[in-house]
């Protein structure tokens, strides 16, 4: 009898262990190779301790490749990923298509009302939160305080483009491999076109008029592109047509850039003494303007969304809630310091006295609040989006125009040729898609 009982007990334990092993869910998370996402992968012990039944596998990709892969997967319901890192551009479009799982049922302690209204609004479709923001950003000027002083200049809190050009000229010392300005030149709708579209808004340009007719043949776009090419050719680093966010970040950290106008999220990396040779010599200012009422800054968030094709929605939600929670921000602060907390998502972060001591905290929030996706341009337009146009076709259009403008920066075509080709190609596509009657 005892033996039988022991055998039964042994079998029960074996079954319990087997079912525990079966109960472990593996989710695949696709993410971009930016510093904050890499840092998250190093803090997974916290998630694993809280969710021992969920195993996370990472697919970490360069921005342009990530976009391509997740777009293909979600459009074909491929089911390759359970959590996708997506931008403020994709979230509303994919949400309207029914491609993303609603996050309205995240636990009460998640405190969805704490999300910054500007960021949350861009991720809400028909009352449903379709993605949770991991970090939010605008763009701003990061500059070398020592080089600015050496040039005999003082950076205003809200500079004009004319000041930026003057400062770039005075800070450039090509013999010492110091370039007055570093800007994105790498082709991509989220690379050079994010910068150039935001910049163009401050020059009075727009992608489309009220009838969806492309505007690349108009003076404001000519002014934008010529100013940018002039700036980069004379005062930018060599090979700039290959430089995106990460390449310019490396140049700035190595002390090779006088100014860099890019994502506010870069502030923690350029001021981190472990990573940046100029960490104690960095100042911040709002993105430039031309006195027309719009600054050249964007509005963006990298967010975590769950594709409708996932078979592991509950485990995916547990991960999304952890990675975008107040507790995660506190975890990063504890391990890495407040300056390295993912910025731009929660009101409570900007109300925190400890975070308010971070030198770029206020400038980041002011920059986010200065962007208005519903009125992005000087003149009225039929679209929303600051550095992008929130229509499905923009991904292809932005990449195509980005390649033309990158080629002009590389010297293989002129500004006039690039703009004429952009006008013709975008007109063809918009006619084919039925926007232009």
- Reading the helices and strands in chain order gives HEHHEHEHHEEEEHHEHHHEHEEHHHHHHH
- CATH-derived topology of the largest domain: D-Maltodextrin-Binding Protein, domain 2
Q: How many individual helices?
A: 19
Q: Report on the biggest sheet.
A: 5 strands, mixed
Q: Low-confidence segments, ≥5 residues, pLDDT <50?
A: 14-22
The protein's oligomeric status is single chain
What integer is the average pLDDT?
Answer: 93
Structure commentary:
The protein has helices at 2-23, 35-41, 44-50, 63-75, 90-96, 117-121, 145-150, 161-171, 192-202, 219-235, 245-253, 267-270, 313-323, 326-336, 347-351, 353-356, 361-370, 394-410, 415-432, and strands spanning 25-32, 54-61, 83-87, 124-125, 128-129, 132-137, 139-144, 179-182, 257-263, 282-286, 300-305. With 437 residues, it is α/β, with parallel strands linked by helices. It folds into two domains: 2-137 and 300-356, 3-Layer(aba) Sandwich (D-Maltodextrin-Binding Protein, domain 2), CATH 3.40.190; 139-298 and 373-432, 3-Layer(aba) Sandwich (D-Maltodextrin-Binding Protein, domain 2). The radius of gyration is 24 Å and the shape is globular.
Short description:
The protein has 437 residues and is α/β, with parallel strands linked by helices. It is built from 19 helices and 11 strands.
């Amino acid at each position: 009898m005892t033996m039988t009982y022991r055998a039964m007990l042994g079998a029960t334990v074996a079954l319990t262990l087997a079912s525990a092993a079966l109960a472990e869910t593996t989710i695949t998370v696709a993410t971009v190779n930016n510093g904050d996402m890499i840092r998250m992968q190093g803090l997974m012990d916290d998630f694993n301790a809280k969710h021992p039944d969920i195993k996370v596998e990472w697919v970490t990709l360069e921005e342009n490749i990530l976009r391509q892969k997740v777009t293909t997967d979600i459009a074909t319901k491929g089911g390759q990923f359970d959590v996708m890192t997506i931008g403020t551009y994709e979230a509303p479009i994919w949400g309207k298509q029914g491609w993303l799982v609603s996050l309205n049922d995240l636990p009460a302690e998640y405190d969805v009302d704490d999300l910054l209204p500007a960021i949350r609004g861009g991720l809400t479709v028909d009352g449903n939160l379709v993605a949770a923001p991991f970090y939010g950003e605008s763009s701003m000027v990061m500059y070398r305080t020592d080089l600015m002083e050496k040039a005999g200049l003082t950076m205003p809190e809200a500079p004009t483009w004319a000041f930026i050009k003057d400062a770039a000229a005075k800070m450039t010392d090509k013999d010492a491999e110091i370039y007055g300005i570093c800007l994105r030149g790498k082709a991509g709708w989220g690379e050079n076109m994010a910068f150039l579209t935001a910049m163009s808004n401050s020059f009075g340009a727009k992608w489309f008029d009220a009838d969806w007719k492309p505007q690349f043949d108009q003076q404001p776009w000519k002014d934008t592109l010529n100013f940018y090419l002039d700036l980069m050719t004379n005062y930018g680093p060599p090979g700039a047509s290959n430089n995106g966010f990460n390449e310019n970040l490396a140049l700035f950290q190595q002390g090779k850039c006088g100014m860099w106008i890019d994502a506010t999220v870069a502030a923690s990396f350029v001021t981190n003494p472990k990573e940046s040779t100029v960490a104690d010599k960095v100042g911040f200012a709002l993105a430039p303007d031309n006195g027309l009422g719009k600054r050249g800054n964007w509005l963006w968030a990298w967010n975590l969304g769950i594709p409708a094709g996932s078979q592991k929605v509950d485990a995916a939600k547990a991960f999304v809630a952890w990675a975008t929670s107040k507790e995660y921000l506190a975890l990063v602060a504890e391990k890495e310091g407040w300056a390295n907390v993912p910025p731009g998502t929660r009101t409570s972060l900007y109300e925190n006295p400890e975070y308010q001591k971070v030198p770029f905290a206020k400038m980041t929030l002011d920059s986010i609040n200065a962007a208005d996706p519903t009125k992005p341009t000087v003149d009225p337009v039929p679209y929303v989006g600051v550095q992008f146009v929130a229509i499905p076709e923009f991904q292809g259009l932005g990449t195509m125009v980005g390649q033309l403008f990158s080629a002009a920066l590389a010297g293989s075509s002129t500004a006039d040729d690039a703009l004429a080709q952009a006008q013709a190609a975008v007109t063809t596509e918009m006619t084919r898609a039925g926007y232009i009657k």
